[in-house]
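Supplementary Methods S3. Input chains for the assembly prediction are listed below.
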Amino acid sequence: MNHDDKAVIEQQVREALKQVIDPEVGINIVDLGLISQIDVGINSVTVAMTMTTPTCPLGEILTDQALEALQVSLAAGTEIEIGLTYDPPWTPERMSEAARKQLGR
Amino acid sequence: MASTTFSTPAARRLRRVPLLALGLIALITGLIGGLNRIGWTVPQPVPDLAYWHGPLMISGFFGTLIGVERAVAYGKPWAYLSPLLNGIGTFALLAGVLMPVPLALPVFAAMIMFAGAVIMARRQPAMFTVTLALGAGAWLIGNALWFHGWPLEVVVPWWIGFLVLIIAGERLELSRLLQHSAESLRLFAAAAGLLVFGLIVVVINDGENLRLVAAGLLALAAWLAHYDIARRTIRQSGFVRFSAVCLLTGYAWLAVAGVIGLVAPLPRPGLAWDAFMHAISLGFVFSMVFAHAPIILPAILAIKVPYHPRFYGHFALLHASVALRLAADAANWETLRAWAGLGNVAALVLFIAVTAHAAASAPSQRRPK
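Predicted structure tokens for the full assembly:
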């Protein structure tokens, strides 16, 4: 797998993850800056997600929904792993311009 | 990717069901007690439910519910001991287990919640984690006072502090998305500090003076109404909008409670107390529950609760019946208060039915393999 292929899959992963919406604010997890890292391997994708704080009770459900979105979007047989990490911690700067606009900032 | 944790299997989440069931027992018996208290004759499965209405609703139901929600957030297995012990304590109270066991268990439950909150506040020192710890601490003090036989006029304000501080802390946590100024955080600290100071004064004055507590509630309501993200998200549609409408209406009731507490002769048991308590517990807290149930239930039980516009039905019934209840209290009209109280219960029953129906008719309740 060359660099371009990896970039294409990474973009595909981002687009799939944009289907997952934080129910409280109605903004997708990519624009909220909750995706810390995406690692694309041969037939595998590993995603590290974060929450705005470690005390947020939505961690489990959002990782589940992210897994579901990737299972639908990626080629069958792709090994998908999604985990929660708080290192580095989320900061408001990680939000996209679209998210800021949606919040009227 | 150091310290990455992976998702909890669905089977393990099902273990949370008995905890919520314990909370539901407190809710049902608490509501039966409440109806009997305001003049309806509802068969009581356990004697004295009217007397235990407040403890069953606040410490029994909300204590267990918040205990589960906080445990999910902490993600540590031992944190579930809090709702478990609290739920067993409620069950022991209803089963007539010899005192002081039913009053001691909620003290241990609150200790565990407080310990979890303190650990989180140390790990992430921030205004919201400190507020959540203060909320859990207020529950601990309230339960300890109850255990030591202090009158409910002293205990209940601490329980109010528990609910309000936990909710305010969670809202502050979410408002980080808006990057509030240092000044807004100072205002929050002043409002929360006023409430906590008021609670201490209640103990010193033996439950005689609730005005500082009321001022704290009013100040927090004003802060939330002005700074909460709900003011932005109300411009969206569907569930996000519904949730924001519930939140902002709840803040209005919290402000009403604050005003009642400032002008009425609290905490004498009577109509002003009834209006004060139910503006908070029904108007504010249950509105928060309505706003969050379709988010939190999926997080706790891994079930989907899709939004439907009919959610506005239980919302409207709740707030109309709370307004009616406060009007009945103001007019000293007992018959109207009884009907309004029935409306309050009907709103909660409707909420449970509509939520259960939404979950049952969700397109796919199956989880990914």
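The first strand of chain B starts at residue 5 and ends at 6. The longest helix of chain B spans residues 271-301.
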